[in-house]
Write a structure and sequence with these properties.
alpha+beta; 3-stranded antiparallel sheet; 3 helices; 3 strands; 53% helix; binds zinc ion
Length: 68
């Protein structure tokens, strides 16, 4: 079975949070929810700079896939 993870730190935020799930979609959802809640200012800044599509692509690129 594959596990996916995304570190908040990989998105350029100084934070220890790691989103983990069984699908990329799950991890994206978790990471977004966390970022909106924990880092609203950083998120707002990024959303001013990039489109939602670009942000999604950037996040997807950072997701790590591993066999569990
Ligand atoms: Zn975080």
């Amino acid at each position: 079975m594959k596990m996916y993870s995304l570190k908040c730190m990989d998105l350029g935020i100084d934070c220890q949070y790691v989103a983990e799930g069984k699908s990329e979609e799950e991890v994206m959802e978790m990471a977004k929810e966390h970022a909106m809640r924990a880092h609203p200012e950083e998120m707002k800044e990024k959303m001013d700079q990039y489109t939602e599509e670009e942000l999604d692509d950037t996040m997807k690129e950072k997701i790590k896939e591993e066999e569990a």
